[in-house]
Amino acid sequence: MTQLEHGLDAAIRETSHLYERVRRVIPPLEWPLHAPAVAAINQLKRKRNAVILAHNYQTPEIYHCVADITGDSLALARRASETDAEVIVMAGVHFMAETAKLLNPDKTVLIPDEQAGCSLAASITAKDVRLLRETYPGVPVVTYVNTSAEVKAASDICCTSGNAVQVVESLERDRVIFIPDEYLAKYVATQTEVQIIPWHGHCEVHERFTGEEVRRYRQGSDGLVVIAHPECPPDVLEASDFVGSTAQMADYVKSRRPARVLMLTECSMSDNVAAEIDDVEFVRPCNLCPHMKRITLDNIRQALETLQPAVEIPAPVAQQARRSVERMLEVQ
Description:
Rossmann fold, alpha/beta, single chain, 16 helices, four-stranded parallel β-sheet, globular
């Protein structure tokens, strides 16, 4: 037996209990490809006093086997503010790593791939926010967390898809500017009497779903339950049975246990929920987020080895952006 083979065997034995978490969604033949990196990452976490935060859109071997904190943007933001670890690795996209840094300014926050961006974050700048304020004087700006720190700093308060309505209503104003997701803004407008002034940004994953696609899936599929993320277009939400954030979607499936479910969001979300329950059939229109998929076991391992790339935010921007995020976390 070669040293390499011995190392692989040892890694498989060391991670066997973790494979049990994902055996429904990762075939046994694939696990040897992941086991060495999983074992190394978990060792490096102990060495570095590090935690890994993983968004619901990460692949199962990351989400279930190396992550310490998982969830949607709101859950990750809340938990990031509570961790005692010295190092935080964000298995997500860049704006999420920035949010973690805002809430942990004295800690090392790593993003395994600096190119892991977001179409929503790219759709608006701080200059755009200032122009909106000039156009609508005195109207508060509610900013979806899928934005850069500079945009957060130019805003009044942040929100996630899970608490957007509560955040809007917490301002107790007749109208608000809601940026950058146009479809989420339209959804919020159906849930409140507050006038919503939207921006024109879209998520490149969710905007690909259509109401016609939902109707085709329903044909010949009695009892199919369709649940959608509010970043989807309005015709998709109208054709769905439930609309909610990724955390709310996961809770719906785990509590309701529909026989067959179609989750209209990023593809890995279905894998991560399916790994935890075995009595629900998932119908999967596989729209992948190219940015989320830039995060891999290999670059997580490298980030922990080198403590790079580290997220840094200029102090004036961080101070104002932190205020917007903390105001969001105060909303119940």
